[in-house]
Design a protein that fits this description.
Layout lengths: L3 H11 L5 E5 L12 E2 L9 E2 L3 E4 L13 E9 L13 E5 L11 E4 L3 E4 L2 E4 L9 E2 L10 E3 L7 H9 L4 E5 L3 E7 L3 E2 L10 E2 L1 H12 L3 E8 L3 H11 L4 E5 L10 H7 L3 E5 L3 E2 L5 E5 L2 E6 L3 H19 L9 E6 L3 E2 L5 E11 L2 E6 L9 H4 L3 E5 L5 E2 L4 E6 L9
Parallel strand pairs: 5-6, 13-16, 13-17, 14-15, 17-21, 19-24, 22-25
Antiparallel strand pairs: 1-12, 2-11, 3-10, 4-6, 4-7, 5-9, 8-9, 18-20, 20-21, 22-28, 23-27, 24-25, 24-26, 26-28
Helix pairs in contact: 1-6, 3-6, 4-5
The structure holds adenosine monophosphate (AMP) and magnesium ion.
C-alpha cells in the first residue's frame, strides 16, 4: 500500500501533455494554448478619437472658454472607418466620430458637449491639452508584442484578443479521449429493467461527467461482466483511447478479476492500493503506453479517486499547470473519528461566514452512499497521522465546485 502522495507522484510522472491541434478560437475556450501569440500589427492601428467631437490643433484652443469661444472652420467630416483626406491647418477642425482616425495636423479632440455649431464652423468652449481624447496607435497592443504566451488557459478575454489580432484558429493541447468501462455482474444500464436486485451503472455516468467537467472527452464502453473473456475484450478495445478508466473488480473478492486481466492484456502495473478512505483499492498502470486506472467500484470511492488522481492527470495531459482544486481552511462543526494511517476524504458542506469558513459533513459516509457526494461542495482532507478531528478544529477542505465564489 502506498500513500496518496506517492500514488500521485507515480501517476503524474507517467502522463505528459498531449500534442497540439488547431481549433477555431471559440472552440479554444477553456483549453490550453500551445503557441505564443504575437501581434502582427498595432492595435489600434492608427491614432483615433475616443469621443464624438472635433479634431483640432491644441494650440488653436488657447484661451477658449464658454464666454470667449474660439471659432474654427470645419474642413472635413470623418466617420469611424474612413481615412481622413485633409490636413488640419491653423484655425481648422474636422468632425470626428468615436474610433475615427485623427487627421494629420490635429493633436487633440474636443468632445461635442464642449462645442457649439456656428454656421459652417464650430465654436470651441474649452481649451485642450495636446493628446486630449486621442487613443494612440498601439496603445492596446504593439506590433511584435507577445500578447498571450503558450500555456495560457483561454478565457473569453483571450478569445476576444485573438479575434482582434485576426486569428481565427489557434493551436491548443489536445483533449484526452477517456474510455470508461464499468465492470460487474450486478450492473444494468440505466434504461434496463432486469432483476430487481440488480443496480444501475451509475459510475459510468458519474465518471463520464467528471471527465467532461475537467475538459476531456469521455467514451462510455458500457458494462463488462465479471468474466475473463469479456473483461479482456473490453480492455483491449479501450486501448484506442488516450486514457482508460475502469470501475469495480479491483478488491480482493473472488470475482475481482480486473487486476489480473489488466496484467493479462499487457498492463504494466505501477501500484495497487492507496492508503486512503474511501478509495483504497485503486490500481494504476499503463496499457500500450496509455494510463489505465482501475478505480474502485463503490460509487463514492470511484468519484473521490477520480478527483484525487484522474483529474490532475487529465489536466496535465491537456497542458494545464494548475492541476488541483482550490483548498480552504475551515472550522469543523462536529468531531470525526478516523483510523490512523489512512488519509480520509470526508464529503462535506463548506459555508463562508464573517469569521471564516465552517464545514459540516453530509452525514453517513459509507462509500456506497452517493447522496453524500450529491450534497457536498467540498472534501475535508484528514491527514494519515490524525486519529480524531475535534469539533472546532481547523481542517483543509478541497472545493469541488465554484459555489463559494458565487453570490445570490
Ligand atoms: P466491486 O469493487 O466490483 O466489488 O464493487 C463494489 C460495489 O460497488 C458493488 O457491490 C456495487 O454495489 C458498486 N458498483 C460497482 N460498479 C458500479 C457501477 N458501475 N455503478 C454503480 N455501482 C457500482
Ligand atoms: Mg464488481
Amino acid at each position: 500500500m502506498i500513500s496518496v502522495e506517492q500514488a500521485l507522484d507515480r501517476i503524474l510522472g507517467t502522463v505528459s501533455p498531449l500534442p497540439a491541434e488547431k481549433v477555431g478560437i471559440l472552440e479554444a475556450l477553456g483549453r490550453v494554448l500551445a503557441e505564443d501569440i504575437r501581434a502582427g500589427r498595432d492595435i489600434p492601428p492608427t491614432d483615433n478619437s475616443a469621443m464624438d467631437g472635433y479634431a483640432v490643433r491644441h494650440e488653436d484652443t488657447e484661451g477658449a472658454s464658454q464666454r470667449d469661444p474660439v471659432v474654427l472652420e470645419i474642413v472635413e467630416d470623418i466617420p469611424a472607418g474612413v481615412y481622413p483626406e485633409k490636413r488640419i491647418g491653423k484655425g481648422q477642425a474636422a468632425r470626428v466620430m468615436t474610433g475615427a482616425p485623427i487627421p494629420p495636423g490635429a493633436d487633440a479632440v474636443i468632445r461635442v458637449e464642449d462645442t457649439r455649431r456656428e454656421g459652417h464652423g464650430v465654436a470651441v468652449l474649452v481649451r485642450a491639452e495636446a493628446g486630449l481624447d486621442i487613443r494612440r496607435a498601439g496603445e492596446d497592443v504593439r506590433a511584435g508584442e507577445l500578447v498571450i504566451p503558450t500555456g495560457t488557459v483561454i478565457r473569453p478575454a483571450e478569445v476576444g484578443m485573438l479575434a482582434a489580432l485576426g486569428r481565427s484558429f489557434v493551436a491548443v493541447r489536445q483533449r484526452p479521449l477517456v474510455a470508461i468501462l464499468a465492470t460487474g455482474d450486478e450492473l444494468m444500464e440505466i434504461d434496463e429493467n432486469l432483476e430487481p436486485w440488480k443496480i444501475k451503472n451509475s459510475n459510468g455516468y458519474a465518471l463520464a461527467a467528471q471527465v467532461r467537467e475537467c475538459g476531456a472527452v469521455p467514451m462510455q464502453l458500457g458494462i463488462a461482466r465479471d468474466r475473463r473473456e469479456d473483461l479482456k475484450d473490453k480492455f483491449l478495445a479501450a486501448r484506442r483511447a488516450d486514457v482508460i478508466l475502469s470501475s469495480g473488480g479491483v478488491s480482493v473478492g473472488e470475482y475481482d478479476l480486473v487486476k489480473d486481466i489488466m496484467g493479462e492484456v499487457g498492463n504494466d502495473m505501477l501500484f495497487w492500493r492507496v492508503a486512503m478512505r474511501p478509495g483504497r483499492p485503486l490500481a494504476f498502470g499503463t496499457l500500450g503506453g496509455k494510463p489505465l486506472f482501475g478505480l474502485p467500484g463503490n460509487p463514492v470511492s470511484s468519484m473521490v479517486s477520480f478527483e484525487q488522481f484522474v483529474r490532475p492527470a487529465l489536466l496535465k495531459m491537456m497542458g494545464h499547470r494548475r492541476l488541483f482544486r482550490r483548498t480552504v481552511r475551515a472550522t469543523l462543526t462536529e468531531s470525526i473519528a478516523k483510523k490512523r494511517g489512512l488519509r480520509y476524504f470526508i464529503r462535506a458542506v463548506v459555508e463562508g461566514g464573517q469569521g471564516g469558513y465552517t464545514v459540516t459533513t453530509t452525514g453517513a459516509q459509507g462509500s456506497g452512499i452517493l447522496k453524500s457526494m450529491v450534497r457536498a461542495n467540498g472534501l475535508v482532507v484528514l491527514p494519515e497521522e490524525m486519529e480524531r478531528a475535534q469539533r472546532g478544529e481547523e481542517v483543509t477542505v478541497q472545493l469541488l465546485d465554484a459555489s463559494l465564489d458565487l453570490v445570490e
